[in-house]
Amino acid sequence: MDLLTHVLVAYLVTYGIVGFHPQYLAAGALAGGLPDADALFFPLARRFPILRHHGITHSLLGVTIVAAVGSVLAPMILPGSIAVYFLVMEVGGCCHILQDGFTQFAVPPLAPFSDHRLQMDADRAINFVTLVFSAVAFYVLLGVERNHVAFTIYQGTLYGVSAFFVAYFAVRLVGRLEIGRDLKKNGQFQQIVPMTNPFTWLLLSEVNAAGRVRTTWARYTFGRGIVDGPHSVEGPVQATPHTGTPSSEREALEWSYPLARQHSQVIEGTYHFGEADRDAAGDWVAHWYSLEFTFLGRSAGVRVLFPADGGPAQVKSDFYRPKLRAL
Q1: What pLDDT sits at residue 161?
Q2: Domain map of the chain by residue range?
């Protein structure tokens, strides 16, 4: 989840617990975002892995330590009960853990005592639907309405924003459970990747054997099942000698795949897919794109162009829009 959504959800939950008490609302919202401060530990995380992103700060122990320290310091800034400060900061931190665990990014809630991971694959780590909604909601609540409208109107907006998140998380969770049941029936796919649209998912599998990688994906729509695919593509991990230009789409993919893997860690490290066709100039152009790193219908990927005159391949990384519209 993005930072704005973490803070907003913690703010809403804190309001549900203690009502309109600005000092506690501020503390709960702050605690909802603090676990991501582990990004500041990046230089130290290489030496102390427990400080890595989604490490100890995303655990119950880390959240409790922050809440305990915060509950002592907060009353020195804004008067209030130590016990209530501790409660709202603990809850705010736990909201952060649960939201991250709701996505495809795992968190270790029991660290350092256990490395067991919470990962539900029910939402994207950064979803622009919730990001934009949270930004607008904060602007309305704290910029437009606060101290400018009747409290009942402000309260109504809070309830409306809360209802959105309850409905959003419910749709994501029910969809994830439905897909899980279907996957158990056929066992064809290994991985579930949620898309920005809460009703759309990608089902993926990858086989790496005999020096070749084969990727299969299908698009799944909540309530309808698989609506597109399965589509498959494969290629060799190591480049093989060749001369001239490809003579077919399959050959263009075979030649370009090792080049794409060498050129981009995104292609090498995530589920990916490839497409190739001939352009107006007679060049063969292959695109390999990640099925996980996507943005507004485009995906991080690699373009490999084989000139019609047989010259060297041209390799470039960028964001591309897949023709199959897997995203």
Answers
A1: 96
A2: 3-179, 193-320
DSSP 74-119: HHHHS---HHHHHHHHHHHHHHHHHHHHTBSS-B-TTTTT----B-
The pLDDT value recorded for residue 105 is 80
Residue 272 has which token pair? 């990916």
121 burial (CB, 10 Å; 0-12 / 13-18 / 19+) is: buried
Torsion of CA 102, 106, 110, 115, to 10 degrees: 150
Partners of 181 in beta bridges: none
Instruction: Average the pLDDT over 273-291 and give the result.
Output: 90
Residue 55 tokens, joined: 């490490």
For residue 298, the model assigns a pLDDT of: 83
Nearest CA among 132, 106, 133 for reference residue 117: 106
- Using 50, 70 and 90 to split pLDDT, how confident is the model at 27? very high
The pLDDT value recorded for residue 38 is 78
Q: Is residue 147 left, alpha or beta, with left meaning phi > 0 and alpha meaning psi from -120 to 50?
A: left
- Strand partners for 286: 276, 304
Instruction: Give the helix ranges, DSSP H, for 139-270.
Output: 151-186, 249-263, 265-269
- Who contacts 45 (Cβ-Cβ below 8 Å, separation ≥6)? 38, 51, 52, 53, 55
Other CB atoms within 10 Å distance of the CB of residue 247: 9
How far apart are alpha carbons 270 and 25 in whole angstroms?
A: 39
In angstroms, the CA 318 to CA 266 distance is 11
Helices (H) and strands (E) in the chain, counts: 9, 8
Look up tokens 């501790």; give the residue: 86
The residues pairing with 236 across neighbouring beta strands, listed in sequence order, are 212
Quick one: DSSP state of residue 211? Answer: T
User: How far is the C-alpha of 16 from the C-alpha of 44, rounded, in Å?
Assistant: 37
The confidence band for 310, taking pLDDT boundaries of 50, 70 and 90, is confident
The mean predicted confidence, pLDDT, of the chain is 89
Decide: helix, strand or coil at residue 284.
strand
